[in-house]
Amino acid sequence: MPAESSIAHRAAQYPALDVVRGIAAMLVVVEHTRSMAWVSFSALPAAQHTTITKLIFLSTRLGQEAVLAFFMLSGFLVGGQVIRQAREKRFDLHNYAIDRCCRILPPLLPAALFAAFVGCIGYGQEVDVWQVVCNMTGLNGVLATTLPFDAPLWSLAYETWFYVLAGALAAIGIGRGNMGLMFALLAAMLAFCRLDASLILIWIAGACVSALPRPRRTSLVSLAGACILIGGVYALQLARPSQSFTTSGFPISLARGIFAAGFALLLPLLVSSPLNAALSRRAWVRRPFGFLAAMSYTLYLFHYPTLGLLELRFSPSAVSGRSIGVFGSGVVAALLISAGMYFLVERNTPHFRRWLRRKTSRDARELAEMPT
Fold first, then answer.
1. 46: containing domain
2. What is the pTM for the complete model shown?
């Protein structure tokens, strides 16, 4: 079974992971939609500084936790697969490179163009071609800044270099290293000198959990993980500036580590047979979350520039019936635009992947058969 289809098959075995991915995607969307619909908490009228409003504002600022969950799941599914294939001496760098490129690039390229279009047409910003190209190739944060009208693209640079690093190390580890891979490792090292290298450990943690045997007492491990995860969420909230509650300047890297540790301990429960068998029997859970998880990548890429377009029509205001309607309209618009792009692009990437494999294999055979 080819690597990418094997990863997809492994993900499909775990509807619990679909639930996590779906919730994480929506947490990112609602956090950014809140900024479009409502002013900051400190700018609200004093009469709206209520406990309910604080809870609303607090529950819609969990986007960073969602991104960390995505990193952990990426490490679990992709990194774990790389570790298993390297152990069995069957890691294929050629197929791996095709799979990862086909996973990231087809939705990313139009998303970067869409963000540049929103900035240019909607807000009169001059298009910086170099910035757009860097955002398309995982070099934002390394050689250029992230596009302002698609701020979530910051994490795609990390994901790109996670894949480069894992592929290069796996190929070298099974004795198929060459100078090209050494240059790839050097490039990854230099990239993470510019990026936050601590986030590599979160991706690696997910990969290691996937490669380790399941604990015998999953319930106890998961209970400990849930407690640590809650502590990690609390620490992450304290690490971020807030106008609705007092923060302590908690170290952000430590807060991320606590969250990742708790999530890692929860993963054995999320992939346990009893839980996933129970979810598989409930179509009302499996189908909507399965679809939301399938389009989560496209949703992550396209919701922000979509909200940027809506901001041309709507301005943030205090909490009211109208602003709640604006908030709901923003969420719906982000879902609809992203769903359309998912069916147009991401859903068709398996066909492009298969074509590219056939094309590169045929070209390699023809090159080998050419007379010297």
1. 3-214+271-369
2. 0.92
